[in-house]
Amino acid sequence: MSSSQESKTNANSNGLTNGTSRNSSCHSPQSNDKTTNLNEDFHFSELSLDTLRKMHSSFSTARNWDQFHTPRNILMALVGEVGEVAEHFQWKSDAECQVGLPSWTPEQRTALGEELSDVLVYLVRLADRCQIDLSKAVLDKMAKNEAKYPVEKAFGSAKKYNEL
Question: Which pTM value belongs to this model?
């Protein structure tokens, strides 16, 4: 894949690239932690949150499920799905849960991916039903986190912002 194709593939219509905001200072190339940057070539397939929102809205409307999709009901479904994600990690050692999950079988990774997908779909649906622009909220929150956790104070620290 050419670098221009890769760049196009990695960027989505929300202005986010590989999980970072346009201000790329959240990703620290200075990190010496090999587990942090283990898969620098990893990226998500291109799919905007708004496209996902529209897909799920159409899916639900076609089945007359909007009547059940109150914010509270969607939240309860989301919490249940997060529990299903947790089940995949329950009783596993830290060694079995390394970045990239190298010891997991393809079947385990597929099952985890399905549960993570459910979480994302319900999260986007919750934002939709609450009429919260999730893309904007993420960008705003990342900007706040940049201010609360400046690199020069937070680098390599697990302390909360008020303890830095």
Answer: 0.73
